[in-house]
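Hi F.,

I've been meaning to write this up properly since the lab meeting, where we talked about keeping a consistent format for the predictions we share between groups. The idea is simple: the sequence comes first, exactly as it goes in, then the structure tokens exactly as they come out, then a line or two of notes. No screenshots and no reformatting. I'm using this chain as the first example so we have something concrete to point to.
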Amino acid sequence: MSIKIAHINLAKGLRGGENQTLAIIQGLKNFEVEQTLICRKNSLLEQQSIKLNISVISIHKPFLLNVAKLKAFDLVHVHEGRSIYFALVVHLLFQKSYLVTRRVLNKPREKWLTKFAYKKSAQIVSISQKIDIVMRKFCPNQKFKIIPDIARNLELNLQEVTNLKTQFEGKFVVGHVGALDDEIKNQSLILKTANQLRKHENLIFMLLGVGKDEAKLKNLAIELNLTNVIFEGFKENIADYFALFDIFLYPSKEEGLGSAILEAFQFQKPVIAANVGGIPDILGDNEYGLLVNPFDDFELGAAILKFYQDESLRNHYTKMGFNRKDAFSSDKICDDYFQLYQSLSPLNAPKHINTIS
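Output, unedited:
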């Protein structure tokens, strides 16, 4: 009998955590589970789920008025912090177990209700070792497990890739993909580095994404007169841009894991990323990519020049990264989740047998 799973993600946007939620649901289609996504009505996550033919229950505020809709499920999987309170109420009312996947480095709020919600969860899953350490301190005596993000398989449009390569022929493209949120993603470091390397005329920096700091970052580029920086905005066809890049930058000031690095690996791009958070879980000790200080544009610039000037070094890290992505394959990660679901599901709970003596 299939386990009935309710996945909850009440985020408004469609960022890394939401894409990973969808990737898990899609990957688990090959396993014995029945899945439904509980998401915010009219959200980008709802729209994308419908495109992917994922079963959806859309809810609106006040969310707690919708808890009865989860009564029929065997297990609840929480994919972002705000949803844990919804799962807690479902647990208290209907005795449904829930697990939580934690994707961010910061510690949850030090409030009794938050601690109670995490304490009542059947399992806390962290996507990296650093997050696991934070959560073990926050909620000791709980069950913990590390299951990283999935290396998503993004589809290319070969004609669009050809068009992009023609457009940027003769250019060495240093690419970045991420929400324009400088406090976390640190795009200002990329701009400072672009300023430092401006004498290399065929070297250009391309940033994909939108966000709250878009105007600030564009103004900084204007102030520095950066003709070697291109803001491409939001693109649905990010796979085509990954194929265009010569190298990929990810200089975040903090990062739960850094799943965009895994996408760069898929397209055989050497990676330079910040030595923070869960990123070393992917790159090792400079084994699968170059790690840099996220507060030093000269160190980042030197790393870029290493790749720019040394094709053999690029080829080495291209091969290492491409092989590394297998450790984050959908089949492997989803099998880990399926095994966890089985261990927590009431369908697999020991049955009480009455004996007559």
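Notes:
The chain has two domains: 3-150+329-348, 158-327.
Residues 330-344 form the longest helix (15 residues).

If this format works for you, I'll send the rest the same way.

G.
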